[in-house]
Amino acid sequence: MSPSSPEKLWTEGRSLQAKGKLQRARKLLKQARAQAPRAPGLALELGVLEARMGMFKHALPTLKDAINLAPTSADAHYNLAEVLRATGQLDRAVGSYQEALRLDPGYTEAKFGLGGILLSQGDAEQALPQLEQAAQNLPQDAEAQTILAQALQELEQSQRALQILSSVVQTHPDYLAGHMAFLRALNSHAKPSQVARHIRSMEETLDMAEVLRSFDQDDPGSVSALQLLANCYQAAVMHERAKQIAEMLCRHKSSRYSGAILSGTLAIQTADFDAAETWFNKAIELQPDSADAMYRLSVINRLAMSAEPLLLGELNNTTTASASQRLFAGLALYRLLSRNGRPEDAFRALATAKAVSAQEYPYNAAMTERGNANNKQAFTPTFFAKRGNDGHTGKGCIFVVGMMRSGTTLTEQILAAHSKVYAGGERDDMMSIVESLMHDLTKVPDLPSGWAATIGKKLHEEMFRDAGSASFATDKLPGNIDYVGLIRFLLPEARFVYCHRTPQDCALSTFEQSFSSTVPCSSDLKAIAHKYALHEDIARYWTDTCNLDMFDLDYDAMVHDPEPHIRNLLEFCGLEFEESCLYPNEVKREIRTASVFQVRQPISPKSVGRWKVYEQQLEPFTHELARLRKTLGLQGT
């Protein structure tokens, strides 16, 4: 073999590649090809090297030569597909991946590449089998597992996706993309407690200052990542990090609007309404048609009447405005007009906006009814007589439950004013436990002995994780009214506070919020009536049939005469009376619910009876509730 033979040049080129000397390696491989232009393996290796070096314009013709020389080479078709994908030629890349798989049906990398493109093109259903097979063959590949989880999320298989991502971040703690995907999944499925826990874990594992700097760029991907991280830091009540992100967003032209919205939101959560007003007005300067910013101003009573024409135009814009834009415009207009003595115009705007939302997020009445039926099947007086003491014996857990907008935030704020209470807000612990049961509570009676104690202990630990020296911890997620039986099974010592108020006030307050996807019933008055009646039905079942002890807190009576009701509340929870509980507006803590503005005010009955202004407009709710109460035997409620 002569020193300059193609074989010798090829061998030397490979040696240089191994040493990272890519330019010299390419030069030798090109010389080898000049001497052996019909060698398909040589063409393939040169094309792969050029692709590795980012020289895609050179790699494309080289790899096509490799295919012409060896049309049955799955490797050549696969590598051509990779280059086509890197250069944005996705449809052609799909064809090359498919040809590689036709030639070699077990080609794992081709399955992964094909599945990734199909997912990016919005075809998660076609992508899933490719990604599943690739991930099965690459069990330790963090990227393959993460992309599979993203496909599962798209197909609403959230529990499986979360399990995969949880495993990825545990086995690959340095893989940032896995952490971001996990946070995005937790955030999109309303799991604030787990979001907070994981972002704190990332602070311990990764150099988050460096991570944030890596996203400090003026492009959509970086902005999206920073917004996600900001939401996570807010969930973890890590304000300094969230403010740092807001400052980053404000530095770049394309993200200044996002930075202003985030800064205003942070100001609201810390009750600095003047600063919030400044930031939201800045957002409007940047985007004059921002219905979102105007809605946020309306929430804190800082929106000027001059916004009416713009909001009306956005609300009625059925061609270019998104559903969320129209919703925010209608909600802002409703608040603006109602505060300026125009209730009929106000409610008309609200109804228009909510009709848009109801179409996008329909309410599933059958699911609510099935939930009540499953509860009654699983949690019977006999069940509690036999297994009522199975759970963890930890004390101090207080669950504030009821219908949304029934006074749960104020109630927790009253408790938070006590020196021995840690306020946990709207936690997602019970939602996660129910998800682990596949949303089927009828499985509970068949669970083995010891399950309740184990899960109950974990639940107790989670509620007290950030409680410090406090001996009581709250969870004020209203929807836990549906899980009172399960909670009682897990934590026999738990205390329940059931909040309720005049139904029409509750319905109006629900209807005028931007809950949308998180509370689908909130967009339709008859749906709110259905949910209200079903929540009354299950509450009565817990107290009257199962004899579970719940403190009955009448919001209307309490705000008219706070002290006796607050004293009784504290006594029920096992707490001594403290004067500070009469002044919950003075508690300095972050609040992330729709009541953030109201609970910063002294206890007052001014919201009681507000529904009477809209009595006629609320008739669909009133009539439907009366009908359902009669059907369910709740006339005396």
How would you characterize the overall build of this protein?
- By secondary structure, this protein is mainly alpha-helical.
- The protein has three domains: 6-105, Tetratricopeptide repeat domain (Serine Threonine Protein Phosphatase 5, Tetratricopeptide repeat, Alpha Horseshoe); 149-360, Serine Threonine Protein Phosphatase 5, Tetratricopeptide repeat; 365-632, 3-Layer(aba) Sandwich (Rossmann fold).
- The chain contains 32 helices and five strands.
- The chain has helices spanning 6-18, 22-35, 40-52, 56-69, 74-86, 90-103, 108-120, 124-137, 142-154, 158-171, 176-188, 192-205, 208-214, 220-235, 239-251, 256-269, 273-286, 291-299, 308-315, 323-338, 343-360, 365-378, 381-387, 408-416, 429-436, 451-463, 484-490, 503-511, 525-545, 555-560, 562-573, 619-632; strands at 397-402, 421-423, 472-475, 495-500, 550-554.
- The protein has a five-stranded parallel beta sheet.
- Helix 14 packs antiparallel against helix 15 (239-251).
- The chain is elongated, with a radius of gyration of 30 Å.
- The protein starts with 5 loop residues before the first helix and ends in a 5-residue tail after the last helix.
- The mean pLDDT is 93.
